[in-house]
Amino acid sequence: MARKKIIFVIVEGPSDETALGVILNKIYDSNSVYIHIIHGDITTKNGVSSDNILSKIRAEITCYANSNHYNKSDFKGIIHIVDMDGAYISDANIIEDTSVAGTVYSLTSITTSNKSNIIKRNRQKTANVNKICTISTVWDIPYRVFYMSCNLDHVLHNKINSTQRDKQRDSFEFAKKYEKNVTGFLSFISESDFSVKMPYDESWDFIKKELHSLERHTNFGICFNMIAYCGLNCGKCDAYIATKNNDDALREKTAKLWSELNHTTILPEHINCSGCRADGVKTVFCESICAVRKCAMQKGLESCGDCPEMKKCPILGAITANNPDALKNLKKSLS
Fold this sequence. Notes:
The chain is of the alpha/beta class and 335 residues long. It has helices at 14-27, 53-67, 115-132, 152-157, 164-178, 182-191, 200-207, 238-244, 248-262, 284-289, 291-299, 314-322, 324-334; strands at 5-11, 33-39, 75-83, 94-96, 103-105, 110-112, 137-138, 141-149, 217-218.
């Protein structure tokens, strides 16, 4: 059996790990992927600058790799989640009030007893974030950074100034809520009014403007792009939903329906799929029969949206003719 690949996840605090750890392990196929999470805000650590932040991130990964006798080839990717903390707002929106203990965030301002410290922190954080949001690899491992704004508690719980006790309680409840409802989490993080549904680079341009880094926004949904090669959304497929939620009743229902539609025998145990472009188990059709998937993989394409023959492809046309959203998804990949 092939050795599991590692997805290395960097979050800012222990409550972030509590909220997301179980869910990430459910999203990624546990037979082929191992999730390892560390926490700490590297973007504001003393001595970390845009000149050395990449080497600091690399040091975290190589330290873990060396301690566990891994090579870079053992890693599938790096997911880095950062809180925005209003880092990109104007200094004029930072209010000094000596009666305030700590730092208080709102949708329009940061109130603090030491304005100069917050300005200094914001300068450091923005310089470092500006650096890491433009890179695609660290130690030759695919890397992407995603934001929670104003912070993770704001996005997940709609609370902007949580106490440590609140953070732990809310994170536990969040993980409990979505542990057996992965598709619900994917919908929450990708389709809510705070979800930034833009291409990756554009999502970063957005958060840097006006007061967006104080407001409730996240681009984390981009991390879970479930769009198949043909443009269909695997996240809405009953086989995917049954797999991720381990729903045997849905497996039986889907097997019966697909058997009738395809005039063949499909058993409930055949209804297991991690998604067209994801690692892990596939339905027999996706794995061995789908002509679109075979063609795109042979050409090394991210999706049919990258193919110059997309508009005149009869196989794809048969799909998009009955599924206009698939064509919209492919056109988005071209933008």
